[in-house]
Amino acid sequence: MPFIDSKISVPVSEEKKELIKTELGKAISILHKSETYLMVGLQDKYDLWMAGKKLDKGAYVSVSLFGHAAPADYEKLTGVICKLYEKELGIPQSAVYITYHPVSDWGWNGANF
Fold first, then answer.
1. Phi, psi (degrees; rounded to nearest 5) at 80
2. Signed CA dihedral, 49, 54, 58, 59: sign only
3. pTM listed for this prediction
4. Quick check: 10 and 47 in contact, CB under 8 A?
5. Over the stretch 20-62, which tens digit does the pLDDT of each residue have?
6. How many other CB atoms sit within 10 Å of the CB of residue 108?
């Protein structure tokens, strides 16, 4: 079960949220996962600071993944997410920060995977 959680400094319309969710659903295949169990969180108008300066246009994206993926796959997904947020939200790729969190224990429906 992957979870892609985004904290975005700019306002995002419901239509854009739906589009981003759909595109992330496609992109998760890079990590050899499907959209079937993908959870996506989008929090817009989020205050972000980097190097002591508030980001007018910025994003922090946290990707949690049951298991792990190859470093090359993480790098490819980083490129896709950065391009998506630049194209759809006007956030420069240089202001999109992404972390990856492989998880060995993930609970759901009263049990762990």
1. -65, -45
2. positive
3. 0.94
4. no
5. 999 999 999 999 999 999 999 999 999 999 999 999 999 999 9
6. 11
Gap between the Cα atoms of 26 and 56, Å rounded:
28
- Bridge-based pairing state of the strands 39-43 and 3-8: parallel
Hey, is 54 helix, strand or coil? Answer: strand
Return the ∠ at Cα 71 (arms to 70 and 74), rounded to 5°. Answer: 95
3-state secondary structure of 24: helix
Q: Which residues contact 70 (CB under 8 A, 6 or more apart)?
A: none
Let me know how long the chain is.
113
In this predicted structure, the answer to whether residue 113 has a pLDDT above a threshold of 90 is no
Q: Is 14 exposed, middle or buried (0-12, 13-18, 19+ CB in 10 A)?
A: exposed
30 strand-pairing partners: none
Neighbours of 39 (CB within 10 A): 11
For the segment 93-110, the average pLDDT, to the nearest whole number, is: 95
Helices (H) and strands (E) counted in the chain, each on its own, are 2, 8
